[in-house]
Amino acid sequence: MSTDNQRRWRNLLIGMKKALFQEAAGNPFEIYKFVGDGWILLFEDPSISGPTLLRLLMRLSLTYQHLFHHGICAVLGVSDHLTGLTFGIDSGRLVQIVMDGKDEYIGRALNVASRLQGAVKETDKDPSDKLLITKNAYSRLKLGRTKTSRGSLVECKLRNVAGGQKYQVRKLTLLP
After folding, report:
1. Residues 167 and 157: beta-carbon distance below 8 Å
2. pLDDT per residue over 59-101, tens digit each?
3. Which of 27, 51, 130, 153 is the most exposed place for a label (fewest CB within 10 A)?
4. Cβ neighbours of residue 47 closer than 8 Å, sequence gap 6 or more
5. Composition of the chain by helix, strand, coil, percent to 5
6. What is the pTM of this model?
7. DSSP string computed for 9-51
């Protein structure tokens, strides 16, 4: 990231934030937190169906591609073939606490989902627009009924997760 172009990257993040708020208005999720280079979204179980969730993530991926292509690639002359969103999904209970006047959440599902999002890059040479989802979440969301939502079974390592040395999950591709 060139310091001369931080405004363009900032605008890309602001554009994604606007898209998230628009999606949150019509879908049952909370935009919990921005961490590093991405957002944590929380869904009340079972507030959304698997196919609806996949369509939501596809729309977010398409929005990112559009913003990146027009705000970064077109101006800076960089390639966008390996740039896109990655997702990690798990299902489980979270504990809500208040720290410094803000809602915070703790729980294994949050930790695992975060680690899965990071592990997408380890399971694919082109991680753009892909997601890793635990078997539990995959089952609860009733995915696998169509060929596009079936994905493939992969193994990854999740650091700082009990049993994470050989963690089996499903990998799905959101966009061709």
Report:
1. yes
2. 999 999 999 888 887 676 666 556 789 999 999 999 999 999 9
3. 153
4. 28, 29
5. 45, 25, 30
6. 0.88
7. HHHHHHHHHHHHHHHHHHSSEEEEEEETTEEEEEE-TTSS-HH
